[in-house]
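Hi support team,

I submitted a single chain yesterday and got back a structure, but I'm not sure I'm reading the token output correctly. Could someone confirm the output below corresponds to the sequence I sent? I've pasted both exactly as they appear in my results page.

Thanks,
R.
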Amino acid sequence: MRRALALAARGLGRTAPNPSVGCVIVGGHGHIVGEGFHRRAGLPHAEVEALAKAGKRACGGTAYVTLEPCDHTGRTGPCTRALIHAGIARVVAAVGDPNPRVRGRGLRRLRAAGVVVETGLFEEEARELNGGFFSWITTGRPRVTLKAAVSLDGRLAASSGDSRWVSGVESRRMAHRLRNQADAVLVGAATVRVDDPELTARIPGGRDPLRVILDGKLRIPPTARVVRSGTLVVTSPTAPRAAETRLCARGAEVLRLPGHQGRVDLPALLDELGRRNVLELLVEGGGVVHAAFLAAGLGDRLVLFIAPLLIGAAGVPLIALPGGARMAEARRLVAVSTRRLGGDIMLTGSFAGR
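Hi R., thanks for writing in. Yes, this is the structure output for that exact sequence:
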């Protein structure tokens, strides 16, 4: 199952609106005879790819799959039928599929055909891996991950806005891997004006996510590197039409959503991204944008790259919120994990209650 989860992760950012699924088939003698993962919507599912590699050796074997096999026909046929036809004797599924078209139906079909079915192996890891799909299928919105590189005293940048570089090389490489796995990456207009980022995933074999810019007043320059095809600039109804024309001339798409005092309504934005099959949204800030998502109760996860630096109180804070007067009002992270990346610490956690 660990191998199946690793395979599934290779499809992240590429399979929407489908989940990322991995499958490993073990033959009757205990050896792996086939493996596969869902590469892209419309291509064979993980089970079908693994069965094709296993061939006749799949008969009597066990299929380890990270998500309940589907039992309906979409762009591809039902995986349950393929598993039964191949003579699979046992299926171990990490977690059930929340999709109403599946939701237990696949497991029931397998059991009715005499296949031994077990569930729950590495369920937490499987849910985390497909957290974006679980969010999208149940709420219609993507999972929102707030990501930032900060100093030990919680600053994103120096007082001038200079942030190159807070984190080290290893952390920046990981940040590009996160972009590679996301369906969309979002920053605010201030980040575009100060840093002029490209918001690309610069890793071997990587693919660039949809680039989303929050700019309620359309103040980003049309010459910014991010303004091109594949970029969505989200603004308010009152933003100037002339600025929209200039951005569209450079290939960007401008989307007007409901807003207040020049600020975009974030729930409306998440609804729109969900309609565009965005399962995973990576919010890279800055501090005002992070604060807006948290104030609206829309952050699901936090990824911090903590660097061994002290910038000082005049630096740009991670969260531009005044905060509560009591510790009981603080936002708490759960399921926290850490890892070392060069001289930095990568901290990942989910917001309690999300």
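A quick pointer for reading it: The chain has eleven helices and 18 strands. Let us know if anything else looks off.

Best,
Support desk
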